[in-house]
């Protein structure tokens, strides 16, 4: 066999292998399928005593809960402009709806079969029960509370004008796992899936010693009537604040800044250390979407606000997306873990008027991705995709010690029950 024939056969074999990889091995979406979310929650009928499955119907009696739900990211999960842009990027693949509009009633098609777990090969047919208005309510009341014509809830003594049933799953963390425990698929090498917060719920301090569940922070307890004119009882707020909420992120971290020497003189090198602690989250920070990350920034400025030196550190996940998905690095913080970030600067002989700024920022996505979503996929959101968690500016001189005297605080019992604990 001459050389050219061997080369052609080799090229053909390589092309065939690449074709098979991208059509039969590498999935379209960046996660695998588990039975719990491979299909929508089956069609639900309107329970007797209600006018519809829409949240407004529930809100006629459960007004406070309804008003809280309306402010939540759950209520915006479908219409959220970031989701819509990312979903357009993913060619509006149906499987994303199983978390963002989880009821079969909310989806325009019914998935009948998923050959070999390949979402792009799924057979679908029009859904005769599709309700576009209900779809726009995203994770609506019925998505969690309605099954088989009955309202499910966390109480075993409910008295209501509709059928009710006690469901103990509302009182454990596993309730959240259907959508917050996305796993990896073929040719995907994550340590934890791309939205794997539930799998990261592993902090012994919070889960085992304190007995906290996801709801402890994301649905804090409150004493109030669950329904209008009902008895006061201990329930939970329906807020689900998390990574999109600056106050929630601030409560999860404790920050301390120190300098060595504490009173630097002209000509000396000063090393500034920022300690960042996951003091109030029962999972890693950041968590959820793998694009989320923190930056720790140091900046030295002169009296004219001119930047003389700066340094930035990043905390998050680094993932290679092509040709296979491989998690290259993960330096996120486990519960109660901390990390020191340092910045060294040699003081100039004329150091009058210098200031040191330290800042910690939380990013929903990178600048590059944000620009890509705007230019290619129609993102028009005004929502901040990055916000400041901590910022402090102090004089960089012999008074530095006085500006950095706060000790690192004790970890709070949980993020939702403590004030912002960041210190300078």
UniProtKB/TrEMBL annotation:
SUPFAM superfamilies: Multiheme cytochromes. It comes from the Bacteria. InterPro entries: Multihaem_cyt_sf. This is Uncharacterized protein. It comes from Nitrospira defluvii.
